[in-house]
């Protein structure tokens, strides 16, 4: 059974912390901490024996919700009117010690049949580790609470964005994609040493590697999908790839039809920005039936290769013709190895613009253009 009010009024104009506090104040201003301590003004009465939750189980985990249940002794069970749920982000040993700590979220729920659903994008983020503990409570006539001891602490991790969430991102990206420009090659910039290493150690074939954690925090491809990054953007005035790059002065160019053709599938992977005016769209090209294709089928929205707002492959007069969106920067991941003999490697004449690199770049969580109403 789902608990009403645990979503904390998703459309409320108040800030996340204000919203949590406002809802909690309906039942209690302060709750005991996990050690049973409380302030003198907490409005919580002295401990009386109430059943302590144990054998806590977390299930049906999504990027911004979960179900929770537990067992408890039948003694005094009929006196329970509320549950107190203490939810905290698990501490990261590598986190910035100067960063403000996340405000703990203490939820108040009426005693309903278990399991119950805890839902709320204000306090739950995707792919994030949390700890949770539970108290049972009995509200007294004078408004005070009698509470049990805290349960044991349970750890769990929220899930990635689902296809539903990614489709919401996709629809937002379509709004700003802009008109389509013709192109003919995919390209990949790296340092000279990278290409030397590929020739010497990988038999001339660039190998897929695991995608970094750039983009949306809930993206199911970050840290999981293996592929090779390519670009296809062109300069408006020349119709050719730009001569500048943040990734290296040597560029591998390959004819578009070698990577994107009727024997490949196209998927939408992510939409994000890095505190800048321009936005990035990640697309995935996977040969039909390949491991990358199977991975994407289960997790990503598939696009019609002939008709979408970002990247198309159509046949005109018996020749494959390619177009890319003008107003977003496309990052294309190809999921299979690519042999250097299929294209050319040459030095570019422009600059290496390191400020434009997206390596492990964090998404701007405040941007209204590329965020959806779930954890960022």
Report on this structure.
With 376 residues, the chain is mainly beta. Helices cover 12% and strands 31% of the residues. A hairpin with a 5-residue loop joins strand 1 and strand 2. Belongs to the PHYHIP family. Residues 52-161 form the Fibronectin type-III domain.
Radius of gyration: 26 Å
Number of domains: 2
Q: Pick out the low-confidence regions.
A: 1-32, 38-43, 95-103
Name the strands of the widest sheet in spatial order: 12-13-20-16-15-17
Number of strands: 22
- Give the mean pLDDT: 83
Q: How can the largest sheet be summarized?
A: 6 strands, mixed
Structural class: mainly beta
Protein name: Phytanoyl-CoA 2-hydroxylase interacting protein like
Family: Belongs to the PHYHIP family.
Pfam families: fn3, PHYHIP_C
GO cellular component, one term: cytoplasm
Keywords:
5-stranded antiparallel β-sheet, mainly beta, disordered N terminus, FN3_dom, single chain, Immunoglobulin-like, Phytanoyl-CoA 2-hydroxylase interacting protein like, elongated, FN3_sf, 2 domains, Ig-like_fold, 12% helix, 376 residues
